Amino acid sequence: MSRQSTVIAPSILSADFARLGEEVDNVLAAGADWVHFDVMDNHYVPNLTIGPLVCEALRKHGVTAPIDVHLMVEPVDALIPMFAKAGATHISFHPEASRHVHRSIQLIRSLGCQAGVVLNPATPVEVLDYILDQLDYVLLMSVNPGFGGQAFIPSTLDKLRRVRERIDASGSAIRLEIDGGVKPDNIGEIAAAGADTFVAGSAIFGQPDYRDIVARMKAAVDAATR
Ligand SMILES: O=C(CO)[C@@H](O)[C@H](O)COP(=O)(O)O
Fold it and tell me: Binding of substrate: at which residues (predicted)?
């Protein structure tokens, strides 16, 4: 398996927004690798969150870590340049929300960002067939998008294995990211099924000790993949 290095990407959806800069500083100082930035439009998903201004504010605050923007919006193309300008390093979108998926991927890459597509729990993996060679990462949703704090959908494990097979067969360094219901007690089996990049919101934010929870997650991944 051509697994990439382990990345823990806390979803700021579960952070205290009144203290966002401090929350992000603390979680990065605790050993997290990326900032996962959930953008919801109350149209593609039934919730409304944050936009490029907040991404830019984190950069101005001094955040230098990768910012992994997950667009849960429809349509997607107009927001891509705005997030690239605001400091996003990674931008992913849902294929159902773009009329021209290949074009949206090319747009992300043309702006110097890493491009990902996001598969909902009911989106078939075959959607990757004609775009995998254009992607830097695939994000599998293990909950229905729109809210933090939901339970991991178990059938995602089989889907992870199927996507991992496709990535390995491609021979390319494509990351496999998982998002939704990731906790210290299931991250090991999720890693064993093929994920290397782990989004976790409610499991991290709100915990008394970010360093402890991030370390426990990384240790569980190591134990499951060594
Ligand atoms: O994109 C989403 C939800 O749509 C996720 O990023 C969640 O925010 C993850 O939260 P937890 O399931 O880890 O609490």
Answer: 11, 70, 146-149, 179-181, 201-202
Ligand 1 in reach of 150 Cβ (< 6 A): yes
146 lines ligand 1 (CB under 6 A): yes
The contacts of residue 171 (CB under 8 Å, 6+ apart) are 2
Q: Which CATH superfamily is domain 7-225 in?
A: Aldolase class I (3.20.20.70)
CB 32 within 8 A of CB 10: yes
How far apart are the CA of 104 and the centre of ligand 1, in A?
23
Question: ipTM of the predicted structure?
Answer: 0.98
Q: Which atom of ligand 1 is nearest to the CA of 144?
A: 4
- Summarize pLDDT for 16-67 with one digit per residue, the tens: 999 999 999 999 999 999 999 999 999 999 999 999 999 999 999 999 999 9
Tell me the CA–centroid distance for residue 179 and ligand 1, in Å.
Answer: 6
Domain residue extents for the chain: 7-225
Which atom belonging to ligand 1 lies closest to the Cα atom of 40? 4
Contact 96, 120 (CB under 8 A): yes
Catalytic residues, which ones?
38, 179
